[in-house]
Amino acid sequence: MIRHIVAFDLKASDPVQIAEDVGEMKAVLEPLVALDVVVSLTVQADLGRVDGHWPVVLVSEHETVADLEAYQVHPDHQAAAAEAGRYVANRAVVDYEYDPAS
Fold first, then answer.
1. Exposed/middle/buried for 90, CB within 10 Å: 0-12, 13-18, 19+?
2. What pLDDT is stored for residue 102 in this prediction?
3. Where are the domains positioned within the chain?
4. Which residues neighbour 10 within 8 Å (Cβ) at sequence distance 6 or greater?
5. Short-list 90, 95, 94, CA closest to 8
6. What string of pLDDT tens digits covers the 102 residues of the chain?
7. Could you tell me the CA-to-CA distances from 51 to 8, 46, 48, 58, 73 in Å, in that order?
8. How far is CA 83 from the centre of its chain?
9. For residues 77 and 29, what is the distance between their CA atoms, to the nearest angstrom?
10. 25 CB contacts (<8 Å, ≥6 apart)?
11. Is 33 exposed, middle or buried (0-12, 13-18, 19+ CB in 10 A)?
12. Per residue, what are the HEC states of the chain?
């Protein structure tokens, strides 16, 4: 199983605007869970308890690296990423393999 984690730093600095932007990102990104190459996908806001934490993260899971690669180039993902990208200043990505039975 492959886990794909993307942390986003947003352009907005106002807490109210950040909350609105996170909501917009969730609305556009979470429907990607319906793609057949996605096992699970969630977008969550940081708890906001520690200065310096980035405000939002996407975590998705895929059966194989090929599924992750197919997700990356899927037209629905490309469109959602472009839409969500309007709010993003920076992003950091980690992909790793794990055994769900462990």
1. exposed
2. 86
3. 2-97
4. 18, 21, 22, 54, 55, 56, 87, 88, 89
5. 90
6. 999 999 999 999 999 999 999 999 999 999 999 999 999 999 999 998 999 999 999 999 999 999 999 999 999 999 999 999 999 999 999 999 999 998
7. 15, 11, 7, 20, 34
8. 12
9. 8
10. 8, 43, 56, 84, 87
11. middle
12. CEEEEEEEEECCCCHHHHHHHHHHHHHHHHHHHHCCCCCEEEEEECCCCCCCCCCEEEEEEECCHHHHHHHHHCHHHHHHHHHHHHHEEEEEEEEEECCCCC
- Residue 45: count of CB within 10 angstroms of its CB: 15
How many residues can be counted in the chain?
102
Which class is 2-97 in CATH? alpha beta
pTM of the model: 0.94
Q: How far is CA 23 from CA 27, 67, 69, in A?
A: 6, 26, 26
